[in-house]
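JOB MANIFEST
job_type = single_chain_structure
chain_count = 1
residues = 1048
[input]
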Amino acid sequence: MITVSAIGFFSFEESVTEREELAAEEMPRFVNSPGHPVFSQYITSDNCGYCYAYGSPAHHSIKSQHPDDYVYISYQSVSYGDTDTTRAGNTPGYNWVWTTGGAPDSYWGDRLDKRVSGCGSNTCYDSMFASGGGMSAATTSQYLLTASVSESGSNLDVSIDVEYLGSGTAPSNMYLYAAMTEETCYSYTYSDGSRGHNCWKSWLMSDGEYRTQSGGSGSGFQSVALSSNIASYSWSVPSSQVSGGSGNALVVAALMTGAPSTGASSEHVLTATDSNMGPMVDVGITDFKVTNTDGIQGFGNQGFVSGDTLELEVNLRNNGVDAYQDGGTIKIYHLSGGNEIELTSVSVNQLGVGGTQSYSVTFDSSEINMLPSGTSSFRARLSDLVGDKVPGNNNADALALHDMPPVPNRPNSVGSPMIERGSSIQFESTAMSNDLVDDMMSMTAELQYSPAGSEAWDYSWISSSIRVDSSTGSHYVHTIDAPLTASAGSYDIRMKWTDSGGQSSEWQVTNNAFTLQNALPLVLTSSDEGFSGIPTVKVGMDELVSIDGQIFDMETPLSMLTIESDDSRFISFDPASLMLSVNFDSIVSDSHGNSISQGIYFTVMDDDGGINSGTVMFNVIENGQPRWGAIPTQSFNEGGSDSIILSPYLSDTNDHGESSSVNQLSLSLIENTNSELIDAEINGFTLNVEAVDENNFGVAKIIVRATDTSGKESDTEITYHVNNVNDPPSITVDDYESMTMQITNSLELNIIEIVTDVDDSDDEIWITVENEVPGAVHYNPISGILSMSWDLAGEQVVEITAEDRHGDSSTETISVTVVNNLPLSWADVMGIGDLSIEINSVEYGSNPTVQISNVGQLQLIDNEAHWSVCNTITGICNDFGISYNLGTFVVLANSGEGLKHGDYIGIFVIAVDSDGFKRASEEYQIMATDSVVTVDPTDPIDPDEPKDTGKNEALDIWTVGLIAFVLLFVVIVSLGITIVFRQKNNDLVYLDNQNQQNVVIEENSRTQIPPPPFGMSPPLPPEGLPPGWTMEQWDYYGSEYLRRRFEQ
């Protein structure tokens, strides 16, 4: 059995070695380009295995497949634990918003929200690149960015050109992100010996300055102003910045809106390039338009009528970086019925950089069938271009709109069409443009009026014609001011509309559109329009009533009327406020007792002397208020509550003196005469009363007020009796419901202090205490002290019962958690726990340094960190030690010779928390390991080096078994000798709390054991030295005594 196991072990190690020598073969891969430049910033580090295995090859693969569409820069630090170093580019003048630890990491489009964190394959960035990387063709196509670098003596001369290709004015607030990089990173080497690409070496900053990791100047990037749509910037930097010669220098540039690297999460990289990207070939259409040479120009009219001559003009431009001389064709089409009808074509000229070409042709629209809201479409197309990289600007369409005459709608009057002379009337009018050329904004309206049937059209009364715009549309408002001298009767109106092209509609006539009539002051009645109803006044009071809605004059303002009456109930008229003042001294009722209206006769005269008269009616009512009925006395027992609905005890009248529903009343609590006895509140019409506590009794009075909608109010008083009822004693265990104690300890509680009786003397209360464990609890009725103690850990429930002299009782329970030791937890990877542990090394031959820290919320004292070194092969623990404090100590393994094969370290901590409870952790174990040797599968193999495969394979299973048996025998003999030696040589390791150094004291029969250093002896137990012990024995064996005592 043992021999077979050993053979299996050796065979396993041999197979692992062979597998590590295999080299992985990378499969070809392809990724689609989004069709525009994509910019990425790559976080990498020398010691990052995932960086040199996957991240860097993934970036380089995309660049190799799409050299003219992909631009990236590598920020390479020494360690992936610290990525924001000056070597990586985090220098003054650059705002580092990227990760400060962890690699590989990649940010796209200079955005935080476009991030690919980590990389586990050589295609990990393909999907982000293919999706555009936070950039779009609509933006990049509007800009041309080129970069170049050349050697000049001991310097590298850099030039970057920016050009705006879009229409209109170039945007402002643009910046040029620019950097010098090494195309192959000869300055930095990955841990596996490979090298990345596009490593940052310096920033190219504003005004020709630069900034490296160790010097230079410049506080920000170059701002870009394209006043003429083109700008150039240059720098000269030392050649020594780049390793590998000038041919290895690569300039990376990106044009951005706003300052670079601000942590934005929106598209702001306009385009990007590097000095290796080839010149762009782009010949595209910049403008294609249709112009009506026969139409009205300068008024925004874009339409045409049949027979107009249309000019079709196309403009193209060489947007590339080099002159274009490879020809091509410009074609212009008329689109009809889904078909392209070619009108003309011409060859593309030779165009220099930024060169343009224009071509135009005329089109006779006589054959066009004009339609309402119709259009005619035309197309310009570039074809047969050579090497054009931006096909999206090779086509352009233009529309010519059919211009039709407007169609008017019938106007509508605003308000009544019957008006008095001297007043105004308004008409709203709209029209349909009948095409896509005009709308209400571009059309004008004309209105005229005439006495009905006479066709004597005129416009002198029209004071205004205004276009009114609103969210629902536009319309014209025409105002007609009829003079006082105008003839009474009916009038006709007519409308005509004219569009921006000068086309007018036919006149549209509306017969009898409005009527003029004479006007006198009028006392309104219920049959008149505008009558506001009969006003209501209160009897015996001076009341004000507005004449608005009671008296009306079409021609004279109400404030200029003279109103008089001989009635004694009329007091006065105030023209400024338009208020009549009246006072009625009685209410007139009919035979059934219902009040009836009373009238005052008025004479009204306008400013022209016109006189009219009439009677204004008034409703005279009483001034009512809420009324209460008698409410009987209410009662309930102490600790109880009561509710009463108050609406049956209420009645009310309105301001008209008529009965009204009490539902319109509002109730409010005015006074509670005994708030220490009861609480009261009103919810709607319900009065809710509740005892303040369960013990008090007595009498209280509640005053409630009812208020109607007019503010009139009435109060009532409700008496409450709270009846006395015997209560059982109360036990207050809020502070003791859950307690914790250790086994064998005693816990005392004063029961008398938590038991009381509100009805009788506390001395008459009989108290009993029970627990399921016999003898665990004892209550002394004389002292009132409850003593509790248990020998076993667990949850215990103590039941306390208090009974008064009437036989009423109450019971409460207390939960006690009895524990041996409370746990201490080791902190997990998230740092959550009580204790953290750090071990510097567990390699063979090492004496590990251990640091234990209190990272939790507990306050610990009397800390002891117990360690041991055991061997999994022998099953023997050889070394032990105790550190009498947390912090750093050294584990001396195997008498200081260090950890050996099969050794493991065990560590546990015991301590006392701030509540006096003992706490202990589980044992933390960690195996000793061999040092890690990294084998590079790419190291070349010396063909002359002898291989193992010949002779090793010649070893048959019998040879291997024999070797294993010999080795096993040697191991057994060695272990026996070790065990005998260990029994004679025990090591005790103590931690010096003053200098944090470990001191090893070895017991050797041939030499006298020196005493431990001062301060290293373990602390004595509370009762002193164990019986029969000396201080010398305690110095050497006290720690083991304390450990075993704690474990008991």
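[summary]
Confidence is low (pLDDT under 50) at residues 1-28, 934-939, 941-960, 979-1015.
Residues 957-984 form the longest helix (28 residues).
exit_status = 0
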